[in-house]
Amino acid sequence: MPRLCSGDYLSGSFCLTEAGAGSDPASMRTRAERSGDGWCLNGTKQWITSAEFAGIYVVWAVTDPEAPKGKGISCFLIEAGSDGIQVGPAEQKMGQRGSATNEVHFDNVRVPGSALLGRLNDGYRIAVSELAGGRIGIGSLALGIGLAAMDYATRYTTERQQFGHPIADFQGLQWMIADRATELEAARLLLMSAADRKEKGQSFTREASMAKLFASEKANQACYTALQLLGGYGYMQEYPLERLTRDVRITTLYEGTSEVQRIVIAREILKEYRQA
Ligand SMILES: CC(C)(COP(=O)(O)OP(=O)(O)OC[C@H]1O[C@@H](n2cnc3c(N)ncnc32)[C@H](O)[C@@H]1OP(=O)(O)O)[C@@H](O)C(=O)NCCC(=O)NCCSC(=O)CCS(=O)O
Question: ipTM for the complex?
Answer without folding.
Answer: 0.93
